[in-house]
UniProtKB/TrEMBL annotation:
Descriptive protein name: N-acetyltransferase domain-containing protein
Family annotation (PANTHER family): BSR4717 PROTEIN, PROTEIN NATD1
Domain N-acetyltransferase, first and last residues per copy: 6-94
A Pfam family assignment: Acetyltransf_CG
Amino acid sequence: MTTTVTHRPAESRFVITEGDSDTVIGELTYETHGSTADLQHTEVDPDRRHHGLGARLAEEALRTFRADKMRVRPSCPFVAQYIQDHPEYANLLEPSLVAEDVEEETADSHR
C-alpha cells in the first residue's frame, strides 16, 4: 500500500495517508513564530510504527521549511533525533539551538 505525505498549512501539520483514502495514519504538528517553525509533535498509528513513516513526515517538514527559508525548533524529541541523525538539516536549527551557540552559552555562564 502506498502512502502520501501532505502539508496542511491551514491546520499547521503534515499528515501521512495510506492508499486512496483520506484516513490519516500519522501527523507532525507545528506552530510558526515569525520565521521559525516549532516542530512540536510527531505521531504515527501504533499499528504502523517502525516502518519509517515518522521519518517521512520529518523529512517532508524539513524540506518544506528549508524551501520556505525558515528556521526550525525541534520541540518534538523524534524530530530532534532525526536532525541529529541527518546532519544535512542541522543548518535549519534556529541559532540558539546550534551546537556552537549552546557550547558558547555554557562557557559564558561559567565565567
